[in-house]
Design a protein that fits this description.
mainly beta, 6 strands, 0% helix, six-stranded antiparallel β-barrel
């Protein structure tokens, strides 16, 4: 199963920002299907061809958002870009 999502923001708090954790919006899914994606792989490729891999850690809020943790920090230019989420059945 392959799903496309949009990177919305870094995970952040009042005084901190986690550069390797991103909030991803999934417009094509129903909110009931979101918990099934925990553990799925997240793939992002920037315009230079660099690949970033991560996994879905948990649901974020009550909408169609998830929190993904990447091995390396994503660049700021990734905000608003499309990622691929691959769930192995």
């Amino acid at each position: 199963m392959e799903i496309h999502g949009i990177i919305e923001s870094y995970r952040r708090g009042p005084r901190t920002q986690k550069n390797n954790q991103m909030i991803i919006y999934l417009p094509s899914l129903n909110s009931n299907d979101i918990p099934k994606l925990v553990g799925a792989s997240v793939l992002y490729r920037d315009k230079y061809g660099n690949a970033y891999e991560g996994i879905v850690k948990k649901r974020h809020g009550n909408g169609n958002k998830v929190l993904a943790e990447f091995k390396r920090a994503l660049p700021g230019t990734s905000l608003g870009d499309i990622v691929k989420i691959v769930k192995r059945d």
